[in-house]
Design brief:
With 371 residues, this protein is of the alpha/beta class. It is built from 13 helices and 12 strands. The N and C termini lie far apart (55 Å). The chain binds pyridoxal-5'-phosphate. The site of pyridoxal-5'-phosphate has 13 residues, from helix 5.
């Protein structure tokens, strides 16, 4: 298929409803947005000063190399500065990776369901998409391996996976990487890295001398709470960062985003607090769902994929009228689920009351129809 035909068939990213739209449509005072895995606790207070200081130099181009941020991250995670590539969010990096390694006649392997931007960007480059269904909610590495052939250029691994929240076992991951020919790029998207249990983190950044074909992606959008500023980074062997930096637009991260990210990165106390609060909320929401008898995927993120007794759209419709925006799994390729970002405890308690009410109504309706 030629490029224009492919692009004509693509749909722009379908974002969740915006808060002001929902407010107006349902005549609500307050909305709790639990649809995009944003940080309900905001961001580090140090970010505000950093942003204000950046305001004095807005007429100046940013440092295209992001030197200050680069030094801080490289030092902290123990890689060479040249091994980092910055992007306007990991979304930008996904596009960059596709543009660098894919072309018509190549193919790329990914899970299904997983983060939608891998497929979208790969299609733009004219690559064939090979989607391997999750097995019991987890990446099926054996089947992904079998899908690889001489034309495969990229394998996408999302861990924790969006929308399931599940993590790839690190031993299985090492075995997989060792078994894949080293001319094939393996992307590990760690957008939720900070939320993972420490013992489950694969730390591929420490093995890039051996795993030259691995690209790890992280972002400031989720745990650091900077989704609105658009900044993320890739960690890889220098042979790949050299290519990606050559393809990258020179000024793809703004001066404001770089300064904010640096302030956020240095504030480990805020990050820790976010993760701790998230885990408390997660444990209590899991307990609630157990009580309700609804199944869910085991998440190491700030969201949960919850299996619902009816279509996810029905749950979405019920909740939105109450002021909660969640993501119906129907649009994410997971029928009969909703993906719920873990919000603040007080909001989650109200959400739980609504879910309880929904479940009771459902049981009542089913009883009446049985009689
Ligand atoms: C949110 C998300 C991203 C995109 O993050 P940005 O850095 O904001 O572009 C990438 N991958 C996954 C799996 C995500 O959930």
């Amino acid at each position: 298929m030629d490029k224009q035909t492919t692009i004509d068939q693509l749909k722009p990213y379908q974002q969740g409803m915006q808060t002001h739209e929902v407010k107006a449509k349902f005549n609500l005072d307050r909305i709790v947005k639990l649809a995009s895995n944003e940080n309900p606790y905001g961001c580090s207070p140090a970010v505000k000063d950093a942003v204000l200081s950046a305001v004095n130099d807005l007429e100046i181009y940013p440092d295209g190399y992001a030197a200050a941020l680069r030094t801080a991250i490289a030092e902290k995670i123990g890689v060479k500065e040249e091994q980092l590539v910055f992007g306007s969010g990991s979304d930008d990096l996904i596009g960059l990776i596709c543009r660098t390694y894919l072309e018509p006649g190549t193919n790329t392997v990914m899970a299904k369901p997983t983060f939608g931007q891998y497929k979208q960007n790969a299609l733009v480059e004219g690559a064939e998409i090979r989607e391997i269904p999750l097995t019991n909610g987890y990446h099926d590495l054996d089947r992904m391996k079998m899908a690889i052939d001489h034309h495969t250029k990229i394998v996408w691994l999302c861990s924790p996976n969006n929308p399931s929240g599940t993590v790839i076992d690190k031993q299985a991951l090492y075995v997989f990487i060792n078994s894949v020919p080293d001319n094939i790029i393996i992307v590990l998207d760690e957008a939720y890295y900070e939320f993972m249990n420490d013992g489950d983190k694969p730390h591929l950044e420490e093995r890039l001398d051996r795993y030259r074909n691995v690209i790890v992606m992280r972002t400031f959008s989720k745990a650091y709470g900077l989704a609105g500023l658009r900044i993320g980074y890739a960690i890889c062997h220098a042979s790949n960062s050299k290519k990606l930096n050559a393809v990258r637009p020179a000024f793809n991260t703004s001066s404001v985003a770089q300064k904010a990210a640096l302030a956020a990165f240095k504030d480990s106390a805020f990050l820790e607090k976010t993760v701790t609060r998230n885990n408390v909320v997660k444990a209590s929401f899991e307990q609630f769902l157990d009580g309700l008898g609804w199944q869910y995927e085991k998440s190491q993120t700030n969201f949960m994929l919850v299996h619902t007794p009816v279509s996810g759209d029905n749950v979405f419709d019920f909740l939105i009228k109450k002021g909660f925006i969640v993501r119906s799994g129907e649009v994410l390729g997971c029928p009969n689920t909703v993906r719920i970002t873990l919000g603040r405890q007080e909001d989650m308690l109200q959400l739980q009351a609504c879910l309880q009410q929904f479940d009771q109504q459902l049981k009542k309706e089913r009883m009446t129809s049985d009689n």
